[in-house]
Amino acid sequence: MSTIPTSVTEKQFNEHIRQHLSTAKRGYESKIPLYKIFNYILFRLHTGCQWHRISIDPDANDPRKKEISYHAVYYHFRKWSRDGSLENVWQGSIMTIEPDLNLYELNLDGSHAIAKKGGESVAYQGRKRAKTTNILPITDGNGFIIATTGLIAGNHNDAYNLKPHLQTAFKSMKRLGLDIQGAYFNADKAFDTKTARKTCFNHGVVPNIDENKRNRKTTKRGRKRFFNTEVYKRRFICERTCAWIDKFKALLIRFDRKDAYFLGAYFIAFAMVNLRHIIQQ
Questions:
Q1: Can you name the residues that pair with 152 across neighbouring β-strands?
Q2: Which residue, 59, 77, 129, 161, has most beta carbons within 10 Å?
Q3: Cα separation, 55 vs 57, whole angstroms
Q4: Predicted structure pTM score
């Protein structure tokens, strides 16, 4: 199922999302049901519109007014981004689809977003001729997103400081109870470094990384590195997942200056990609 959901019903929200979101400890949660606020956030992420352009339904008691202010929608998005609720939604989606995961293969790829207003983890990248920020999600063999790095400034190459990022990703998968022992780790030439391969071996993962000759004029000495071509061909699955993430237009161009808010938007997109077949049913 390739249709990525851009809205959820109240039942779907209560089953897969609500328990991961923080709510008010005293008083009422909000003027309208939380699932509607979550759908307004999804609308903004999907269309890429400005917050004040969200299409909000009229008030049932007074049709001349909107049922809630866009300020309240933005407030909930910021709060859930800061306190880790949206990350919990994504991790909860991984637990929901655990029986469907193909952990025999792991795929790594990067995605750059142009940052129009600058911000944290933003720097100029010559190839894009703009300030950009980068993120490296990891998918399983079926295209589900099961781990990710944080945001990385665009002036660095994909392999910059890769070791701690991989360590964090592998530890997060193990913390969720995912068995990645012996899995193939597919990555392109940009990630062909000794530290990346060593980190994979240390976590029981087999690096299946295409060799980067880096203008090498002679044959590399020593034992030839392991590389399974057939398994590497199936890495295309992560390219498809990145295309699904790009369906959320607010992630194509970054306007959020704070990392927490932009990363929170990614967590929502990751969760929708993971829950696509469940919500569509």
A1: 134
A2: 77
A3: 7
A4: 0.92
